[in-house]
Amino acid sequence: MSGTLVESSALANVEINNTFAGGVSEDWYNSDWLYRKKITLKQASSTLSNFPVLVSLSDTDLASNAQADGDDILFTSSDGTTRLNHDLDEYESGGLDAWVNIPTLSSSAATDIYMYYGNAATSSENLASTTWDSSYVAIYHFEEDPPGTDVAEYLDSTNNAHGGWDIVGDGNSKEGAIGKGQGFGASTVANDDWVGTDEHADFSLAAGDHSFEGWFKADEQVSGSGFGVLYGRFSGGTPGAGYFIGIRDSNSNLELDYRADGGDHLNLSSLDSIHDNFEDNNWHYFAISIDVSAKTGYLYIDGNLHDTDTYLGDLIDKTGYPEAAFFMSAITWDSPGNHELLGSMDEIRFTKGSARTDDWFSISYDNATATSTFYSSIGTEEQDTGSGVGVTFSNSASTTNFMILDGGVQAPPYIYISGNYRNDGIFNANSGTTTFNGTSQQYISGFATGTNAFAGL
Fold first, then answer.
1. In the prediction, which pLDDT does 342 show?
2. Pairing of β 415-421 and β 426-429
3. Which intervals hold domain DUF2341 (predicted)?
4. Architecture of the domain spanning 136-353
5. How far apart (Å, rounded) are the C-alpha atoms in residues 267 and 256?
6. What topology is assigned to 35-134 in CATH?
7. 95-109, 244-258, 284-298, 345-359: lowest mean pLDDT where?
8. What are the residue ranges spanned by the domains of the chain?
9. 408 close to 18: Cβ distance less than 8 angstroms
């Protein structure tokens, strides 16, 4: 670094430290990422493992410094360097919805993570399929807006590739609870306006603990035959097999009907004094947890436990049904318009191998609906402060000309200055200028153009 002081100013008893000469800081993920912010997640009510935290924010710094599609955004743990898997749900003009896998969401202290951005050269850093642990069978964000072509265009965010067929009418609402969702309406065409999947072995959940989650908004009275289906895996008859979850038109409450052998059913209902009508045009979060060893099911609405039920015998899984292994918004063997949801769905998930806990569902709801309090703080934008040997310039006498060489190391634009200098001093740095405007420690910036002599300024 070299330059000349002008306008009758001089430097005396000054030390200039280019702390970038040694490279990137030890707690910085990678020097290719120029910016980061610390996000502090509030202390959880109980410790949860591999919890998918929703990071939902609108940020002017992201809008200015991240790639237009958010592909350069990534997350690390509190050490600033350990990568956390994330699933980028939606990003536009600084508005971010991303699911970040937190290995341990602590109940004893707040959890810090870092969000990095500002790498113009990287391709997508999205790690969707590794964000969701192996207990997840399928996850549908409904971010896609396909044209009704009867192919698997609704993507599954797990690595299981259980995409959903697109049998949804064009022009339906894409409003979602988180990012985009999918609207459904009663159809006059047989088997229209629904989503289905092919058969997969891991759709057979009945033998072990499992759970269902999702968001729904019922716009008006459900259509026909008493039940507007959210989703299920079901075949009719006596006793029938499988399950379906939906809105009952006689009382507008949310119900689960799960068939068991011996003619028994697992029946869960949201009908109570608090929520007895979900056709209110508002988004609601539902979750169902099945504990097979206890032969008990649990229904949660908006993070709260609403109903439990037990069953005899064993739950019966649906087999051999050709239309769809798993369906959303309709029971596909029914006549047109019957059992279809009039409303919207978002973030449909189902898992196997464990029965989720009360805290899991309550924290999930809190995270999605109270982001301003779920993040106890979002820090200011940071840049790397560097590390290493620290290239210095110091003098005890007045001078107007000096040179500092840093070996051509490129780094973010900061130099640390301490000492005494006149407050009208201006340092010419190639075509740019750096102004010294005080008599104490300063962080200053300049312009590096065309030569490594000014690298790091």
1. 78
2. unpaired
3. 69-144
4. Sandwich (2.60)
5. 6
6. Immunoglobulin-like (2.60.40)
7. 244-258
8. 2-24+391-454, 35-134, 136-353
9. no
